Amino acid sequence: MAERENMLYADGPRSLKARLARWRGAALLLGWLPLAPPAAAEGPFIEIPGFGNLAAWWISGVGIAAVVIYTLWRWQQRNPARIAVARGLSLGIAALVVALLLVESFFHLIYARTDLVSISFGSVRWFQRYFHPVNEYGYRDLPYSDERLEGKRLLAVLGDSMAAGHGTRDYHDRFSGVLQEEIGDAWVVATLAMIGWGPDLEYDNLMHFPRKPDALVLSVYYNDIEDVTTALDKNFQPVQLQRPNLLTAWFVMHSYTFNFVYWSIVMPTFLHDGAYEAYLAEVLNDEVVWSGFEAKLQPFLDYAAERNIPVAAVVFPMLHRPDITCPFDDNVLAFFREKGVPALSVAECVADLPPEARILNNMDAHPSDLVHERVGHALADLLRESGITTKD
User: Is residue 236 very low, low, confident or very high in pLDDT (cuts 50, 70, 90)?
Assistant: First the structure.
């Protein structure tokens, strides 16, 4: 036995001791790999760690586990009575490390779910995976080619993330896609919408769109009023997304699991912040703000009147708290209807749905697929009743 131990722990490049020592040193070195800047995959808003980061976690996790298990093995070698304890701890550590690495792999490779402002890794991954197709104008839509439009009429839907289909995997399931199916092949519905747009950008892009629509649908959301509050220096300041502190920031920015856990805690709080609701109650009843918003909407009606294009509107509330934006919805609907523009109240379309069925998830208040479906059908009915379209 003594001779065997001497062989086992003998000095020399071929001894087991030397090999394990080098292995341990390599494992400790590899354990710091995630500290290096992650290989980034480009997303629509932020860069997210790429596959190199996941590989670093696996190498680090396995390396650190190997060092700990080797240390336990050395520990039990000095006292055979510790063998059972060392084996149990080794198995537990190995199982824990593998489980954590599998969880990290799940959130890195499989998980994709949007949040309200697309700041989480899962939300960026969703956009990379599902926000398609993108046509020659940069819109999430099929190309507006001469072949596609030949012999057909063009209905343009203008809007922001609500119309673009934030969180809706299949672009056919957006309300504009449902509308396309409802009004038939005689029409092509073009969704001229981008995430983050307000009336100013929507109008500017409508003016630069090279094709003349035969009908126009304007999608309006309560946060469109920020185009006015920005100009009046009345933007809401107190509520800010809580950024991770120095202690947690590295993990949040390098681990998909930590990133998911952090934003799952922070984002619902941000989503239901009472201060923002109080701010909305103030600005939505401000006559100066409202007059400014009417001035933002009027150019769309002028554009349609000058070109003899029929126009309709669809008004989205704060879907998880429609009571908060009720004054805004009522004012917008009244504005359009007084101008002879047919307008659809989404709040009325989804009044029977519970709040959780109206929104995508607890981190994202954009409309669910069910809401898109209802809006698409109701809008098709409104356009037919108004004589703007007839089903082919």
Answer: low
Average pLDDT, stretch 219-241? Answer: 79
Q: Are 275 and 309 in contact (CB under 8 A)?
A: no
Predicted TM-score (pTM) of the model is: 0.84
Out of 33-37, 63-67, 78-82, 231-235, give the one with best mean pLDDT: 63-67
Give me 138's structure tokens: 């940069």
Stretch 4-29: mean pLDDT: 39
Q: Which two tokens stand for residue 258?
A: 């930590």
Enter the CATH code of domain 121-385.
3.40.50.1110
Task: Return the structure tokens found at 77.
Answer: 């070698």
**CB-based burial label for 169 (10 Å; 0-12, 13-18, 19+):** middle
- Strand bridging mode 364-367 / 47-49: unpaired
Phi, psi (rounded to 5 degrees) for 244? -65, 145
The answer to whether residues 141 and 191 touch, using CB atoms and an 8 Å cutoff, is yes
DSSP state, 284? T
Domain spans, the chain: 2-109, 121-385
